[in-house]
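Researcher: If convenient, please comment on what follows.
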Amino acid sequence: MRINEEFVFEDKNGQVYEYTLGNDKNIEVKILNLGGIITGIYVPDRNGVLENIVVGWKNYKDYTWDSAYTGALVGRTAGRIADGKVTINKETFELSRNSGNNTLHGGSIGFNKKLWNVTKYNDEDEVGLILECASKDGEEGYPGNVILKVKYSLNNNNELSIEYYGTSDKDTLLNMTNHSYFNLSGDLKRSVLDEVLTIKSNKFAAITEDGALSGKLIDVDGTEFDFNNPKEIGKDINGEHNQLKLGNGYDHPWILDKNVNVKVRLEDKESGRTMEVYTDREAVVVYTTNYPEDNKELYSGGFLKKNYGICFETQGVPIGKNEAFLDGSILRKGEEYKAKTIFKFIN
């Protein structure tokens, strides 16, 4: 097990460092103190070739103006809050609207834009980082002073764990996720459309024309949204379902089956890489890079294309129209927000 720290550039808020976590199985995870951004997850293919399985930029400074939240910790609230306002204890809070009339991923300055304090640790069984950050009362319109800790850890079972711990001095909203774009081909050699996806879920949340949730849940059975049995991502992505047309592909929360352990599985048969997702969260937002951030050079050269990454944003269901699903994002004063997701890599 090993951990390294390297200075990469000076941000307006301070110095940005990249931390490399490595296990004894030749897997590496690279993370910035800026936004807790995962810049790389290096996993061998079936022949032992070590390649990056997430989207990332060649120039690290490009992460400072990235509007795709690439690899970042997202919050206070992941996803869109419909109409950019919420009512908590009969008081209405007007939030920062940064996606049309909606609040996206915590507003204009979310946790993805902040420099986090980092503590490294190296135990016998795992290596990791503890990131700490604060959000002041009223920031982006949210009530309460929030203190957030995020623990990244990598072990020799090839498991990358992300654990979230948050408190607030007022009743508020907190619904965190990580926004990494996975591509198991390695170094972004091809799109994810041929990768085989399993999602253990019987319902997904419908979106509206502006991407916010309508408040309606739809059965996946018999639709293009049924991934209970393994299926290539591209098999139905261009189907006739109105929800696919609204999202220009998949960009929806699936309500996860509470009775299974492995919630999501992704397999790339050509490289031999497989990833499993375990989480205690209610939902996973699956996004198939329908609107690629194509104005920055990739670490692999060239520019990002449609469907060259897939996000598994484990979280509570985002707040929809008429404050649908609001309760899942409420954090009460004196209570602790806790969440955990594990990405397991198999080759």
